[in-house]
Amino acid sequence: MELKVRDVARLLDVSEQTVYRWVKSGSLPAHRIHDQYLFNRVELQEWAASQKHPVSLELFAPNGSTDEIPSLAAALERGGVYHRVAGDRRELVLEAVTKLPGIPPAVDRALLHQLLVGREALASTALGDGIAIPHPRDPLVVHVTEPVVLLCFLEKPVDFHAMDGQFVSVLFTLLSPSVRRHLQMLGRLAFALHDPSLKELLRNSATREEIIVRVRGIESAGAATPARRGAIKDQ
Questions:
Q1: Facing residues of 168 across strands?
Q2: Are residues 49 and 137 in the same domain?
Q3: Which of 92, 124, 125, 215 is exposed most, by the fewest CB atoms within 10 A?
Q4: 18 lies in which domain range?
Q5: Which of 53, 83, 113, 135 is catalytic?
Q6: Do 14 and 97 lie in a common domain?
Q7: Do 38 and 30 contact (CB within 8 A), yes or no?
Q8: Are residues 115 and 194 in the same domain?
Q9: CA–CA gap between residue 202 and residue 81 (Å, rounded)
Q10: Is 135 one of the catalytic residues?
Q11: How confident is the model at residue 68 (pLDDT cuts 50, 70, 90)?
Q12: CA distance 102 to 11
């Protein structure tokens, strides 16, 4: 329980009064200890990702050091960007993803497909706006040494049972060597997906080069600016 109200307010770029209001309404996970609210960093990471709430990259770094966060652009370069990925059902799309060349050679592709399908059966990885982030529930099972992200533009939109009802046309498949790295990459991606220019590139199925250049720019700006001031307003 290392985070206090003032820390959460800074990381979420809201006022302390807003944090208190969210806690009292039950929407923000908190623990009351010795008459003060304390917050678990991992719980806050998961909350921010599920709520699509812009946060400081510092939230996803141990001890608040953004230097240790792996690069999303580098992970995309390792995994690759693919257009017209086939499949008219969720399971078939995920099978097609596991056959792409960006999957590291040491990964058991049949097992990976089972893990991805099993994860979707637990809860949809669709974020809304036509985007999903399929990933194994336990990242350690796939045995990768570095984070890998495959970006897939689907040949046709597919139903991933998204909360907003939109069919998915863009997939970011995450493979990570550890739970910590997975949370960090999820944070990088959640941060990047708030960028209007990147969202426009995704809507237009842009090229690999265009996407990676934009992601590098987002990461550079994020490293220079600890919190995205003005990204949201208190509610």
A1: 158
A2: no
A3: 92
A4: 3-55
A5: 135
A6: no
A7: yes
A8: yes
A9: 11
A10: yes
A11: low
A12: 33
Q: What's the pTM?
A: 0.73
Cβ contacts of residue 197 below 8 Å, gap of 6+? Answer: 214
Cβ neighbours of residue 192 closer than 8 Å, sequence gap 6 or more: 72, 198, 215, 218, 219
Q: What is the pLDDT of residues 183-228, one digit of tens each?
A: 888 888 988 998 999 999 999 999 999 999 999 999 888 765 444 4
DSSP-assigned beta bridge partners for residue 149 = 174
pLDDT in tens, 171-181: 999 999 988 88
Does the residue 234 lie in any domain? no
Q: Is residue 235 part of a domain?
A: no
How many CA atoms lie less than 13 Å away from 135 in the CB half-sphere?
29
Beta strands in the chain (DSSP E): 3-4, 31-33, 36-39, 81-85, 126-128, 131-132, 148-158, 168-175
Instruction: At 40, list the tokens.
Output: 């678990």
Written as one letter, the residue type at 181 is R
Judgement on whether residues 170 and 219 belong to the same structural domain of the protein: yes
C-beta separation of 166 from 124 below 8 A: no
- The pLDDT of residue 169: 98
